[in-house]
Amino acid sequence: MASKTWFVTGASAGIGRVVTEQLLERGDRVAATARRPEGLSALADRFGDRLWTAALDVTDTKALNDTVERAFAELGRIDVIYSNAGRGSVGAAEEMTLASIDEQIALNMTAPIHLLRAVLPHLRAQGGGRFIQMSTMGAHITTPGASMYHASKWGVEGFFESVIAEVEPFGVGITMVEPGIIRTTFGANLDLAPGMPEYADGPAGQIRAYLASVDNVTAQAPGDPAKVAAAIIASADATPAPRRLALGSDAYNAMRAALSGRIAELDAGKETAASIDF
Question: Could you tell me the sign of the dihedral formed by the alpha carbons of 52, 236, 107, 65, in that order?
């Protein structure tokens, strides 16, 4: 299989780091971006010029556009864009700070939108490519206390599902990756909102209290990060590009239950829906 060049955001930790390592080990070239790219120094020492790095906060749209332009200018063709950077915030809707609300939308939804817009002219010019967006089973299910996280993920999936048909004629494929809970540092990096006593004994307060009591809720998660990374990499070679990639039995079961429940709710309102027609 011919080697590829990938552009990865959030490459210094979590699944982004594992994907970057696996790509380099199999002989691919990676443009790896992260807020703290010094975390990639060991890989740079090991793999030399097959690893291109840049400091990038994806919520800085000008920096994002500049980094994309520089990567394509210096590396030429980039075959796969892996939009991985993201974070979760936890708290009841009323507990969330303005900063946390803004961050969830900017990081998990707006930044991927701007990244796609920045790379599309290059992908069209080179005759195609792949865009892989890291999503979550949380784009189909919801949890009390994670309203803004779910909102950002439901929103970004709505955007990409709409765009799939727009870019298909240019040979650009889009895949949304929807894992369950993976054994990474995601849980340790959660943004916990300050609690309000009114919510302490309710569902959101109980979840927030549990998360605050453990160092890393995902430390013993069922999902194997190495297998998740391998599945993401393999999806870039699948033809046509899979629209969605559910990863983990927990993700499959939770999403199937949620989708089945929504179908049942829709069917229950069938007569009401038809009743308003002329």
Answer: positive
Q: What is the DSSP letter of 108?
A: I
The pLDDT value recorded for residue 223 is 87
- Catalytic residue numbers read 135, 149, 153
Which pLDDT score is estimated for 214?
A: 66
Which residue is associated with the tokens 């950002």? Answer: 152
Coil/strand/helix, residue 227: helix
81, 183, 188: which is closest to 130 by C-alpha? 81
CA angle 4, 53, 182 (to 5 degrees): 75
Angle between helices 98-105 and 147-167 (to 10 degrees): 20
pLDDT score, position 256: 98
Residues of the chain with pLDDT under 70: 1, 214-218
Domain boundaries, the chain: 5-271
**In CATH terms, is domain 5-271 a member of 3.40.50.720?**
yes
Per-residue model confidence (pLDDT) at position 210: 80
> pTM for the whole thing?
0.94
Structure tokens that stand for 141 in this block: 């299910």
